[in-house]
Task: structure prediction
Amino acid sequence: MPKKSATLSKQRFKHTSPETTDLVIPAIEESVSVTRRVRETGKVKITKSARYEDEVIEATEMHEEIEVKRFAKNQVLDKPATAREEGNVTIIPVMEEVAIVTKKWVLREEIHLIRHVEKSQKPQTVTLRKERVNVEKTRLK
Result:
């Protein structure tokens, strides 16, 4: 239950007129304080149980079987083939990258022959043929 308390205080007010005297007016203030306490008022008991029953339901059961067939192709393709479906058949290509040997001319190296000409002057003895012609002119008298 809340507790109540009251406080009485006196305050003086002065009037500005000269013929009045001091007047005392009482002021009252109340305050409330609330507290709680736990009190048992009764008890509760809870029990839980489970029960199992069989029930018949309609369910669809499906069974699927896959047959695997392999077909040799040995075809040369420009690009890799992709998996595809044709009706209820899924076709998965098995690719192999194969090196193909071709014959081509490959320039491995070049051999460059460089001529160096060297000139020098050396004295040598050689036989030269020289002819001289002497012409004499005479005057007729």
